[in-house]
Fold this sequence. Notes:
The protein has 299 residues and is of the alpha+beta class. It contains eleven helices and nine strands. It has two domains: 21-102, no CATH class; 107-283, no CATH class. Strand 4 (123-138) and strand 5 form a beta hairpin.
Amino acid sequence: MPTLLPAMLRPPALPRPRGRASRFDPQGLGNRTRMLFTQSKPGPRSRRPTWTAGKSAGLGAAAGAAAAAAALLGPKAVTSARAGTGHPLKHRVLDLASSAIQRKYPVEAISTYLNGFHMYADDMGRQVEASHFCIHLRHDLHQCVIFDRNAPGARLIGIEYIISDERFRSLPDDEKRLWHSHHYEVKSGILIAPGVPDLAEHAYFEDLVSTYGKTFHTWQYDCDDFPYGIPQLMMGLTEDGQADEELIRARDRRLRVSTQRKRRGRSDITRPEVVPGANSWESGRTVQTQLQEQDFRRP
């Protein structure tokens, strides 16, 4: 099974700021908030001083909090803010605060970003790009969350489990029908690890080439801009002539990669024997999820 990427490939930790505190630090924020409630001198037609407060003060305090969080959290806050574009200010501030004080251990455990393509298990003509963010849970098991792209505001579209050849061989025959092999995706260069140096990526895919994946997409984003319906079983491509070349070219242009160059660079990776039972659609018969109404059971 693939191992975690070497420490040298992980993003460096952000250095702690030194020197004078930012004007957006918590203490400065308190001063700025108090400054929102200022007493003004009586005007020529008024005998009493007036106080500037109300909704503008509340919005100003929220904006100050957002600015403070952005200064303290750095790139993470920027990403959160971009994802929250169009949300009410109150929600954006709460999101930034949550980013600062809550630990998300499963998310922090994500070690690998992979980009590839899936097809619906019952329709090769429906192929979609899939950005995987994977956790190496056990030596023979990865678990991945899948988005439509690697960008702020990306849509969560599914999940994939990746297991070793040995684990796949031990599955019941009915279970094997839900899984697809990764041999072609790796050898063809279609599956990539964006941003990882070629040498490290090659070593990673030497292990991944013999693995199997079970994938369900919860958002059919090729049809709707909303997650209608039920999860759909997805499969992987297995030979030349199946891929939607326009989708691949568009991906390559956007991520500045070359699938053909990746393919040539992986020509020395040994093609594994595909275990019978995987890629069940190749038989001409396939399986897909359906809703079935039934009686509700009570304890």
